[in-house]
Each structure stands twice: as C-alpha cells, then as structure tokens.
Design brief:
heterodimer; A: 392 residues; 2 domains; six-stranded mixed β-barrel; 14 helices; 48% helix; B: 170 residues; alpha+beta; OB fold (Dihydrolipoamide Acetyltransferase, E2P); five-stranded mixed β-barrel; two-stranded antiparallel sheet; 4 helices; globular; disordered N terminus
Amino acid sequence: MPRSLPFDYAVRNLGRRPFRTLLTALSSALVAALLVATTAFVRGLGGTFSGAASEDTAILLSTVAERDVVRSTVTAGLPELVAASVPGVKAIGGTPAISAEIHMGTNLELDDPGASIRSEPLAGFVRGVTERAFLVHDSVTLLEGRPPRTGEVIVGRMVAAQLGVPEEQLALGRKLRFEGATFEIVGRFAAPGTTIEAEIWTPLAELRGLTKRDDSSVVFVRMESPARFVELELFTRRRLDLELTMIPSSTYYRELSDYFAPIRAMAWAMSALILAGALFGGANTLNAAVQDRLRELAALRAVGYSGLALVRSLAQESLVVAASGALVGLALARLFVAGSSVRIAMSAFALDVDAVAILVGFAGALLVGVIGTAPAATRVLRMPIAAALKEP
Amino acid sequence: MRILAPLSLVLLSVACSDGGSGATASSTRLECFVSAKAEAASVPVREARRNARAGSEVVVRGRVKDFVTNAAAFVLIDESLRACSDEGDPMEDSCTTPWDYCCIPSNEVAAACALVEFRDEQGLILEPIVGLRGLDHLDTVIVRGVAEVDADENLRIAARSFTFTPNKKR
C-alpha cells in the first residue's frame, strides 16, 4: 500500500511562509464573504416578491393598468359586488376576505424633534387599507401598537431602511406628513420576506379624500382554494363593463420577481468573476510554493512517496487555508451582511445570512481551494525526480 | 338583472342533443358543441349587444379574444376591431399578446365584447375549450345560443353550437 504523508506535514508547511499563507487565507475569506452576500442578495430579492404571494389570493385590477397596481383604478364598490356575485370567496369570522386598497408612491416628510417638520421630502410607498387587509395579507403581523384610524399610520419595519432614516424617526407617537396631511404613527408591523415591510399603511377612506379619488387601485380577494379562481375570472369576463382583469397573487409576484432576474444574474456574474480571480491567485500561490520546494518534493518521491501522496498533501494544505479563510469570511458576513438592508426603487428588503448562504459561501471557498491545487498537482505528477533533485 | 331563465333552460336542455349527449368523456362534452353545419346568417357582436334581448336566441359572429382559464368560456369580440397582430397595425409589436387589443381604448373594447359560455346540466363546463379542434385566439367564431343581458348591458351567450374559422395569421 502506498505511503501517505502525515496531515501535520501539510499543516506545518503552512507555517513556513506565514505571510503568503495569510494572504491566501484572506483571499478565501473574501470569496466566502462575497458568496454569502451575493446569495443573501439574490435570495432576498427573489423572496421579497414571492413572499408576498398567497396561493389562495387573487388580485383584481383594471385591464388598462397592464398589471401595474399603482396605475390601476377599480370602482370603489367592487368589494361588495364581488362578495355578492362570486361564489367561493373565503369568509373569515363571517367577513368576506376582500380588501380594497390604494397603492401609491408619495413624498413623505418626517417630523424632527427640536426642529420643525423636516423640509426634505423622501420618496415612500403608501397603501390605503381597511381592516380587511389583514384578512388577505397573512404575512402581516403588528409588532407593536394597533391598526390605524383616521389621521394615523402604521409603518413596516423596513420603512426606515427604505427611506434611509434612523429607526427612531419612525417610532410610535412620531409624526409624518404626506398628501398635505399629518399622520401619527400608531403601529409597527412585520411581513417577513416581503416588500410590504417597506410600506406605510393608512386608512383607505382618508387616503381617498386626500388624493381626491373615489376609487381603489386594486382589490385583493382570498378564495376558499386556488381552484375557485375560475369563479373570479368568470366574474371579470361577465362584467366586461368594469374592465377588470384577475391575476393570482402568486403569478403577479412571480412576474415582479422575474423582472429583477437580470439584476440577480448580474450579481452572480460579478461573483463568478471575482471567484475566478481568487482561483487564479490561489493556483499561482500554490504553484509558487511547489516551485520553492521542488527539491524537497523530489526527495520525498525518491524515498518512496508516490506522486499522488504529494498531491494529496498539497490539497490538504490548500483546503486548510481555504477552510480557515472561509470561516473568517463567514464571520465577516455575519457581522456586516446579516440584518443589513438593500433599497430598491420604493421598496427595501433585508439581507438574511441563512443556512443556504453559509453553505454556498463555505463550499465556494473550498472549491476554489481544491481547484486551485490542479496546476501544482500536475507539476508534481510530471516532475522528473532526478532533475528536480538538482534544482538550486 | 334581466337575466332570463325559462327559455334558456329549455334551450340548454337540448344543447348538444345532436350528438354525444350522455357521453362522459370530457372532450366529448365540448366536442358536441362544434357544429358541422355553417350558419346561414349571423350578426356581429356589437349589433348583438345593441339588439339582443334576454332569453332570445342569437347567432353572433366575432373573434376569440380571451379564454377563461379552466372553464369552457371565451370572450368574443367584434370583428370590426383590429387586433394588434392584424396587418398594418402600427402597434403590432408593442402588445403583450396580439389579442389584448391594447391599441384600442379599453372602454371601446369592452363595448364590443360578449362572453360565450358552454354549459351542461350541471352548469358551466369546467374544462378549457382552448385547443378544441385547434380553436385558438383570434379565430373567427359563429355561435348560436341564448342571450343573457344584465343591468349593465353586458351580453352573455349560453352556447348551443358553434363553428369557427382559424385565424389566417396563425
């Protein structure tokens, strides 16, 4: 049976060039951290839309809106019409789960204690809702406070990140101003993994008055099961005068998510480029290490160690460095990436360093370590022992 | 609502009676609506919307705009409206689908449409009709059935039989 080099030989070799080892480990750390950040970004961007979808909920919006909820306008009495005409609508506590809503982007002004109303307006997203919104948006949970009444709002926990202001400025009791009226913050809500978290909710009736409109943007309808969507679609086809279109919320949010697919692809492409850079750098470093130890390696071959044993030892060196660096990178990612948020248009989403992100980061760094061994391994396997022993 | 009832029930009870009634295969339930005999006369959708009375039998001609998902029903649109894929339309390439008529004001589109429903004894047949003998969007259809008109003047046709001509551009 061919002899193997002991594991501590590989480990001790790392100490012979500590600075080079340190730089290689740092490179692995960066690779791991970058992959974790990319995975968190891509998954966050994708999940933030799909998370808001519900399998049994559909959206009614106007045909002319081309699936844009902000451009859509539907008649104010649509919820009652749907409740009366469409069988299969889910009732929760005897109330049909139908929510008329206004979706709009607007300029916000936050109050500033010690000064007057903040002068610089911020672009925010406001949703006018009734209490029925909680029947169709399952993901929404009030973290503190209560649902809004006239002159009040509740804010999602990502609103501060989306507006780029400190959390304290959106604390309960603070005031904000939009559409010419001042609102008091009376609640804070979460809707994990959805864009809803970056929204401000206020009573629908008041928002209608402020924006001088007598309609809604869309109506969310929760059915008893997805199989009952046909009833809702038939309603939109039978009531051609209402110019409505029905789209399952899962389809709507999937299409939104697909819209950002090029951004996700670009993120992966940039990661791949940096990964390739790290790979070539690592391969070069290990190749240089082999060059420095050519006589030693040839001697080991001469005393009976096979080329494969030497390659295995080199791979161990590379993997130890890559794994150590990856652990540092994961710690960095945990420190700087986890919990941070990304603003996108009038929304924001949180970066979550979950098991998948950690796995991708760690596996990526190890892969770079293993593949980076290839040039050095080839060199060792092809090394003419006699000539190598004469190397200076 | 001026939705009729007795006459349409009578007519519905005889729908498909020429062939295949009682058959249980899903496709046969819809196949029996396809008529081999061409209608001698028919009216465009807009005219039908203007003149049809609830409960009356109508023969309406139009093009298939949208199919209802998982149900035997489609929206018929007046032939005089040009679909976005029709020759010479400047908006030909800008619409999501050629049959969405996006280049025409939506109220004009809505006023030129009628819903055609295929029903059996249990009511609307819950299986898609798209693809039946190749039936597809923008095919020209002549449908015979019973008119149902609601208070908002939306026209629904409970189909008894239909013929269709495939869209030339397909």
